[in-house]
Model the fold of this input.
Amino acid sequence: MTIKSPKDFWAGLMFIGFGLFFAIWAAKFYQFGMSHSMGPGYFPTVLGGLLALIGLVVLLRSLAIHGGKVPRFHFRPLLMVLGGCVAYGYLIGPAGLIIATAVLVLVSALGGHEFRLKEVAILSLALIVFSVLVFVKGLDLPFPLWPAMFE
Done:
């Protein structure tokens, strides 16, 4: 039997792997319960089982229906977005919400194939205004806006 759709084959394997991991992991550490009185492990176990079942369907489809090849994986966007999130996490306390958000947008935008400073600046400003209005003003969360030396 040959794989006619490598993209679906690997996606199916991934779904099966994640589904079985969570179904087995949830069953091991939490009480399962019954349908009428669900325990804390019921939902993750059933959801993991359904994910594994969907993965099996996708995997079997990959053996019957022709599909696309697995595209080349690009590490740069992944690493830049991850780096932006890590930088945000480290900067939010000492540098404040405004600088941390600007760094997050800038570093993440460097991962794209098109970088336009004007667009990044507009997006950064919009995200900063949105974050301040929602989290600081609206939800009254105690995020510092600037580094302590500026306040």
In short: Residues 6-29 form the longest helix (24 residues). The mean pLDDT is 87.
